[in-house]
Amino acid sequence: MFFAKALRYLRGREPPKSSSKSLDDLPNELLDWICGYCDKPGIKALRLACRTTSHVATAYLFPEVVMLMNRDSLEACHGVAAHPIFSKTARNLWIQADRPRKTTLEEWNLELKEITELDLITVASDRIDQELVVGSREHTAAMDAVFREARNQFHIEKSPLSKEQRQCYHAHAVRLATDAQQMMRDQSLFACLREVLTKCDQIDSVDLTTCHHLRKATTAHNKSFAQGLLRPFGDLNEQESGVDAMTQLMLAASSVGFKPKKINLGNLSHLILINKEDFSEQLQELFTNVEHLVWEFSVPVYDDAFTLDRDAYEDIAPDLRETKALVSLMEVTTKLQHLRLELPDHPDADIYVTLQDIVGGTTWRHLTHLDIANFEAKPDDLTDLLIRHRDTLAHVKLGTVCLQTGTWPECFETFAGKLPKIEQFEVRGRFSDDSIDESFLWFGWPDEKHNNARGEEIRKFIINGGEECPAIHYQHDEDESTSEHPSEGNDEDGNVDLGDDEDDDDAEHEDIYGLDEDDQGHGPIYQTPNGPWPWIG
């Protein structure tokens, strides 16, 4: 009862009453819980309430240090490290390793045009969401009107730049791109990381990301990048995405003995394991105390169309097989509880890293969550990995796996009912095996939140066990139905039916931001939250 009254009081829902209790008397655990329900203005108000709430609320006001690849950001991070309060409240370091590339004025103009078009799509999508009632997305005329109005208003607010303004912005963009490279060579980034990791001694987790992987970057809102009208997306060289920043991080961490409990790596190249052999000891030190590890590996691409660099892609599997570098790194993570690895994958190629070259024979005594995608394995290797963690595994997720021998029903039968702690078993993507022709099992797209109908049957079989795996329908195409008799609550593709997907034909327009054309050739199709939108120009 007291907790409820305290919460209502802090939210301003009832006037204060005389009581022997004050905010200073509340335990930090309760204040921490209350802060979790407050927005940023509420947090600021709590900081002014009294000494105790100020201490707890401050931690919520500044929970992480965000570092971008420009000198203004480094200067700001130095300021955080020197701050007597914020240096003690930050618990996470987020390194956004996206760097701007040097461009000619013509190239810069083209990038600015793309940014402007994306902003227009965002504005129009928001207007459509706000002004059209739910279920009206099929009313093209209404959407067209809202879009045109949003476009006109957008162009009024975004007046064209003069030639002199463009030249000035471009000159600043070139300086920013030069600094992004220079700060690696002159150790500016290393020095900043070292100071942050030394003085912000509560930090125990690190995120290093590019290209909006894992988290949406804040580069679009950064004042320094805005001075050059830049929105960096990706690293200078996508074949070595994030490698330079990761190298500076592990060297700085080693110099101060920083060993985080949580590491999230978004779009980091496997070449950090291959090309930095001289620093392998520092890299392994960084992972020594990790309990939670997420690593989405980058796919080597080039040019603005993100064309697959086939040679670089085909080198990934041999690199990891010959060096065993990833296996060696996994072996030092003895405290691991949560592991998620997303190996490189591309629709234009199907060469995968083997499970043995990812985890080898590593055993983690505390592993409860296992999530691995885009690999190939022998049935015995996959079964052995799961069985040797049967005493701890509670959640398993497998995505796009190629079975080197045998069939999936036979493989599932080898570990079904043999994982006593298992609570959730998920499957996504293509599961291919030695079955006839080019058929495979389809368990839904990787980003879907739930198993499809076929996946649900497999989940129940793995958890409950049984003598024989349920019959599974093989197919030759992702769009083919995964079941002749879809389960209730699932659509014809065996996926969870959300009820508002009235016209599945719209799925053919899945290109994001104008890579496709409509049926009448009216120009690019843009995907909005309410469906595909033709560019109106």
TrEMBL record:
Domain of life: Eukaryota
Region annotation Disordered: where it falls in the sequence: 476-537
Acidic residues bias (residue ranges): 489-519
Protein name (record): F-box domain-containing protein
Species: Zymoseptoria tritici (strain CBS 115943 / IPO323)
